[in-house]
Structures are given as structure tokens and as C-alpha cells.
Automatic annotation (TrEMBL):
This is Trehalase. The keyword Hydrolase applies. Belongs to the glycosyl hydrolase 15 family. Residues 597-676 are annotated as: Disordered. Keywords: Carbohydrate metabolism, Glycosidase, Hydrolase. Residues 216-584 form the GH15-like domain. It is an enzyme of class 3 (hydrolase). One of its GO terms (biological process) is trehalose catabolic process. The keyword Ribosomal protein does not apply. Pathway: Glycan degradation; trehalose degradation; D-glucose from alpha,alpha-trehalose: step 1/1. It catalyses: alpha,alpha-trehalose + H2O = alpha-D-glucose + beta-D-glucose.
Length: 676
């Protein structure tokens, strides 16, 4: 029986990451980068595919584990017959070589400890040439050479799995350091493991100390932010969706994908959570990554890239891996790189808009790029796409995708109106109105009073819960209320939201056999809607249920299987942690220090930019707003809602952002008030 997904904890050095199990085994580690071949891949197979275990040799039990406060240094304690031992694991922030250190420390009594290390480069496929070399072991296979520094007398064994046993007494320590070196590079010098652990802890604490969030749920928020930082590839600023591949969305199922890449969508969501929490440097680094990645012809823009901006991410199946809990195939690479997903234009435009709003110094070429993308979008927004969920079936007119095209137009208009940038603003205003009208006419089902998954469909979709956060319609608009109620009625499993309707038609849409867990980010988005509607206590209750799904060290996968009571999908997943941070901000009632600073800085300009709705940011205020000149900045977009929304929609939507005749905003009861 493999460990449950939630039995793992993350350690990492902001270039790659490892998963450490409650049994003291590291079962996943890709070196030297997130997207390199794994040298420990037991997570997706068995011990023969690589692992490194350090735990008491005889009978024992897990006493508990934790991260040292505000850090990514993990401590696991085991109770054995004659004592207690602590294993401390971390990946020091990189100097020369990627490395992983483990310290075994006697806490009480005497404990006999055993370590086994099976290094298996290329995702568990290769048994390396393993040798003893002075005070270290070396493992060599093609491009990968690893050294394990240890003074223990290892037994090399016959199966390419060196083992050693030793005894530790209270106060004694035994250290290990595993380092990867490039071909031809000399073996690394020895390091002081204790000092490396202290330095790593300090590094993370300093980073966490910059967090501007000080409200309720701080521990969960900081743990999420640390996790997001750990998923950032520091040399480029790119952010991976998760450090794993092929952890199944259904135990034993086929929905197994490689997430070790940078999605414009996921990375943009991450950026905004970091920005809200006060991490400007990360925002600037990410913007540089983004601009480099998407540079060039707009028609060639991808929806996802490699961590250095690579554009080709072919998907292959690793047939030698049995898959987590038998979930096959195991895939590396991701065919979604070939997708056309309209929402990424809105996400990109919104992210760059948010950096402007929050006073991050401009990057001039960024605006040229955005103008070129807008030109492309004007030509193509009507094209069907693969949608936010990366449907592998035929392209369709997904409602969420069209709304995100509206976002792109809206942010382009605002760049001109509010930041004085130059562009064909009249044309963009017309585009914004046209898209608004199109969505309200075709993506809304007046009979059921709900937006739908795609034009003409009856299916529901969790992404519709984002429509208010982006400022498309206020959360208290009857159409949004109707959509939220429809989701609550028909798209939930045991109190958690599914991504989309699963019925006999689903396979025509996603081209996959049915069955997956509840999608945690969508459930957080439901909580956001409840809070925005003023149903704060209901939102809080849902948020706390979600927090209850976090594992013992605060981590979330992408999905949750309510029947099995287990986390499923890649782990830990950026989208889930971003959504957690955003809902906490919503509950806190403001959008954090960056925004307050921006608001203060802009107060002389007399507009509410700092509180503008964001596609993704926390605490968005979707209410209609008046600008300094007394006309709502959304007025151009509002017009179509009044003029052209379908009868059923406009009849219910009189107070929406789409209606310029709406009364001046009055915060919805219970909704957090705006600052600044
Ligand atoms: O469900 C099919 C798709 O699932 C994955 O996509 C999901 O993960 C992405 C990364 O977090 C996210 O951006 C997307 O919205 C999710 O649906 C997978 O990467 C796709 O290849 C697959 O088609």
C-alpha cells in the first residue's frame, strides 16, 4: 500500500523539490530542476524506482512532524522501542550544487536507525554505477552523478541499494548530504550539515517575514505562500503548477498529468496572491519570465511554457512506472501546450494591469506586447477554444473563456483611461461591449437562471464562480446568485465543488473517461462568492472545512475524493494554495498591504484603482464603481448589459456592473469594505 498523497511533505530549494513521506522515505526528487528526470520515483512505482529512507530499524511509530516555523525545514519524529529520534530534512538554497541534507538526532534513549538509498535516474529507469569513494558514495548514470556524503560504513548490497545501520543516543547527530553534480564536474566539497540547515531555516524565515498578511488564519496563509515560493524556479521567475507528475485525479484512473511547467493561468494566479501579500520582487521576476516567454508573434503565444520559457513540451508515457496506486499512464510533458485557451489573454492583461495598479515600476516593452496581443484577440476572440480545464475534446465556446476575453479588453481600456497609455481605446471599448453582450446572450440560460459551461450547453462549470471576482458582474447580481445556487445544487459532492458536470455528455467535451475528485480551487471560489454576497459566515464555514482538508503540515493537492476521504491529484498544487490565500484575504476584508499602499499612493488621483476587481486577486470588489469624473469606469462595458443582454438576463440584472443606471455602490451587507 503506497502512502496517501497527504502523507507527504514538501522540501525544496526554489529550483526543484522533493516529497518526504511519513515513513521517512523520500519518494520523489527531480534533479537538477523541477522538470528533470526523477532520481527517486517510488511515488509513481515502487522502491525499485528510487527512494531514500531514514527511519528506526525496528518497530516504531510516527510521533509527528512539522515544519520549523515559517520555513521549509521539515522535522519528523519517530518513537522506537528504546527511544525517540528526529529526522530533519531540507534542501539548502542553492550555492553550487543542488543538494538535500538529512540530520538524524537522538531525542530520547537509544534508537537503532536504518537508511536505504536506491538512486534511480531517469524516472526510476536506470540503476546507476554505485561505488564507495572515501567518505562518500557515488552514483553515476549518463548525465547524472550524485554523491552521498556520510561517514557510515555502507553496505553496497547487490541490488544497487546501499544500506547502513547505526545507533543514536539522545543528543547525538548523524548527518547525510546528497548532492547532484554536472557531468565532468568534481565531487563537491563537504559541508557542515548543521550549518546548512540553520542557513536554510533562516532564509525561509526571512522570506516569510516579509509577508504582509497578519489576519486570521495566518499560519495557513504563510504555509501556502511558502509553498508557492517553493514552486518558483528562481533562476527564471517561472512558477510551476506543482512539483509532481501523474498523481491521479481519481485513484486508479487515467487523469494523470505532468504539472512541472508554467501555465500562464496558474502563474498569474500565483503572482497576484504573492503581490497581495507584499512580495513585489517575485512579481517583477515573474513579469520578466512572462515577457521573455511570450515574446514574439502573438499567434505563437502558448498557454504554458517550460520553466525557462521552453515552448515544446511533448507528452510521453513512462511505461515502466506502475503509477501511483496503479494509476496509469504516467505522463511526462503535457499535450496541453498545443492548446488554444482564450482565458490566458485575460489573465495576462489582468496581471500586468495589477502590477501597474499596485505601483510596480513599468516595463515599457510590456505595453507594446499587450497592444499586439489585443490586436490578435480582436481577430480571434470568437474562436472556440479548449477552455480553462484544458478539454481534450473538440474546441467550444466556453463561457469562462469569453469572459476572460472581456477582461483583456477591459484592462486594455483601463490602461488608457487610468494610466495614460496609448492605444485605440474606442475600438477596445466596442470590443468589450460586444463580448459582454455575446456572453450574456449565449452563455446564460434564462430558464434556469445560470451561466453555463459553454454556449448552448446545459452543463455547469466551477469556473463560472470566477465571474464576479473578475468584475464581469457583481456577486449580488441575480444572474450570479442564480449561478452560485445552481452550482451548490448540482455541482457539489459532499459539500465540495466539482470542476464541471459529469454526465453522459461529458466525454464528448473532455474526451476522458468520467471520474475525478472535487476540485479544491473551485470550492474556495464558492466560498469567495458567498463572502462577496454578504453570506460571510457561510463562506467562513466552507473555508474552514477546506482548511480541514490540509494535511498535517498544511499542504493541499489539487482535488479531494470525498468518498475515499483522501487528497488526489498533483501535490502540493499551486492553484489550491493560491485559492486558500485569496479566500483568507476575502475573509479578512481587504486586499493586503500592497493594495493599501497603492491606494494611499494614488489617493491624489481620486480613483479607486487600488481596489479594482482582478480576475484572480483576493478580495476583488465587483460592485459597479464611479470614477473621479462620476462615470463608472465600467460604463462602456455596462452599456451592453442594458442594451443587449437577453430578456431573461437583463430582466434580472438591473443592478449589475452591466447597468450604468445602477445606483451608486453600496457595499453588500457583510461584504468587506474597501480601504483607501
Ligand atoms: O483535465 C484535463 C487537463 O488537466 C490538467 O489541467 C489542469 O491543470 C492545469 C495546471 O494546474 C490547470 O491550468 C488546468 O486549469 C487544469 O484543468 C492537465 O494539465 C491537462 O493536460 C489536461 O488536459
Amino acid at each position: 500500500m503506497p502512502l496517501r498523497i497527504e502523507d507527504y511533505a514538501l522540501i525544496g530549494d526554489t529550483q526543484t523539490a522533493a516529497l518526504v513521506g511519513t515513513d521517512g522515505s523520500i519518494d520523489w526528487l527531480c534533479l537538477p530542476r523541477f522538470d528533470s528526470g526523477a532520481c527517486f520515483a517510488a511515488l509513481l512505482g515502487d522502491g525499485g524506482n528510487g527512494y531514500w529512507r531514514v527511519a528506526p530499524a525496528g518497530g516504531h511509530r510516527l510521533l509527528g512532524r512539522r515544519y520549523r516555523p515559517d520555513s521549509l525545514v521539515l522535522e519528523t519524529e519517530f518513537a522506537a522501542e528504546d527511544g525517540v529520534v528526529r529526522v530533519t530534512d531540507c534542501m539548502p538554497v542553492r550555492d553550487e550544487h543542488p543538494d538535500l541534507v538529512r540530520r538524524v538526532e537522538g531525542v530520547r534513549g537509544r534508537v537503532r536507525v536504518r537508511t536505504e538509498i536506491a538512486v534511480r535516474p531517469d524516472y526510476g529507469a536506470i540503476v546507476p554505477w554505485t561505488r564507495k569513494d572515501g567518505g562518500r558514495l557515488s552514483f553515476v548514470a549518463g548525465p547524472d552523478t550524485l554523491y552521498l556524503a556520510s561517514d557510515l560504513p555502507f553496505d553496497l548490497g547487490e541490488a544497487g541499494c546501499p544500506t547502513a545501520e547505526f545507533t543514536v543516543e539522545a543528543g547525538e547527530v548523524v548527518d547525510f548530504r546528497l548532492a547532484w553534480v554536472a557531468p565532468q564536474a568534481p565531487a563537491p566539497a563537504r559541508v557542515d550539515v548543521g550549518a546548512a540547515i540553520e542557513r536554510t531555516e533562516r532564509w525561509w524565515r526571512d522570506w516569510a517575514g516579509r509577508c504582509g498578511y497578519d489576519g486570521e488564519y495566518r499560519d495557513a496563509v504563510v504555509r501556502s505562500l511558502i509553498t508557492l515560493k517553493a514552486l518558483t524556479y528562481s533562476p527564471s521567475g517561472g512558477i510551476v503548477a506543482a512539483p509532481t507528475t501523474s498523481l491521479p485525479e481519481q485513484l486508479g484512473g487515467v487523469r494523470n498529468w505532468d504539472y512541472r511547467f508554467c501555465w500562464i493561468r496558474d502563474a498569474t494566479f500565483t503572482l497576484l496572491a504573492l503581490l497581495n501579500s507584499g512580495y513585489d520582487d517575485e512579481a517583477v521576476a515573474w513579469r520578466q519570465w512572462l515577457l521573455r516567454a511570450v515574446a514574439g508573434e502573438p499567434a505563437q503565444m502558448r498557454i504554458m511554457y517550460g520553466i525557462q520559457g521552453e515552448r515544446r513540451l511533448p507528452e510521453v508515457e513512462l511505461e515502466w512506472l506502475a503509477g501511483y496506486a496503479g494509476s496509469q499512464p504516467v505522463r511526462v510533458g503535457n499535450e496541453a501546450y498545443l492548446h488554444w485557451q482564450l482565458d490566458v489573454y485575460g489573465e495576462l492583461m489582468d496581471a500586468l494591469h495589477q502590477t501597474r495598479v499596485r505601483g510596480i515600476p513599468p516595463d515599457d516593452p510590456a505595453w507594446d506586447l499587450q497592444c499586439a496581443l489585443m490586436e490578435f484577440l480582436e481577430e480571434h476572440w470568437r474562436d472556440p477554444d479548449n477552455g480553462i480545464w484544458e478539454m481534450r475534446g473538440p474546441r467550444r465556446d466556453f463561457t469562462h473563456s469569453k469572459v476572460m476575453a472581456w477582461i483583456a479588453a477591459d484592462r486594455a481600456v483601463k490602461a488608457v483611461e487610468e494610466f495614460g497609455l496609448e492605444g485605440p481605446v474606442e475600438r477596445w471599448r466596442r470590443l468589450r461591449s460586444e463580448i459582454f453582450e455575446d456572453v450574456c446572450r449565449n452563455g446564460f440560460d434564462p430558464e434556469r437562471n445560470t451561466f453555463t459551461q459553454f454556449y448552448g450547453s446545459k452543463a455547469l462549470d466551477g469556473s463560472l464562480l470566477l465571474l464576479s471576482a473578475v468584475g464581469f458582474l457583481p456577486a449580488d447580481d441575480p444572474r450570479m446568485k442564480g449561478t452560485v445556487e445552481a452550482v451548490r445544487r448540482d455541482l457539489m459532492s459532499d459539500g465540495f465543488v466539482l470542476r464541471y458536470t459529469m454526465d453522459e455528455h461529458t466525454a464528448e467535451v473532455d474526451a476522458l473517461p468520467p471520474g475525478e475528485g472535487a476540485f479544491l480551487p473551485c470550492t474556495f471560489w464558492l466560498a469567495d462568492n458567498l463572502i462577496m454576497q454578504g453570506r460571510v459566515e457561510e463562506g467562513r464555514e466552507l473555508f474552514e472545512r477546506l482548511l480541514g482538508l490540509c494535511n498535517d503540515v498544511g499542504l493541499l493537492a489539487e482535488e479531494y475524493d470525498p468518498a475515499a476521504g483522501r487528497q488526489v491529484g498533483n501535490f502540493p498544487q499551486a492553484l489550491s494554495h493560491i485559492a486558500l490565500v485569496n479566500t483568507a484575504f476575502h475573509l479578512r476584508g481587504d486586499r493586503g498591504p500592497i493594495e493599501q499602499r497603492a491606494a494611499a499612493g494614488r489617493s491624489g488621483r481620486g480613483h479607486a484603482s487600488a481596489n479594482e476587481p482582478s480576475a484572480l486577486a483576493a478580495g476583488s470588489r465587483p460592485e459597479p464603481r464611479r470614477s473621479a469624473n462620476g462615470h463608472g469606469p465600467d460604463s462602456a462595458a455596462c452599456a451592453p448589459a442594458r442594451e443587449a443582454a437577453p430578456a431573461g438576463a437583463s430582466g434580472t440584472g438591473g443592478s449589475g456592473a452591466g447597468d450604468p443606471a445602477a445606483p451608486a455602490e453600496e457595499p453588500v451587507p457583510g461584504r468587506p469594505r474597501e480601504h483607501g
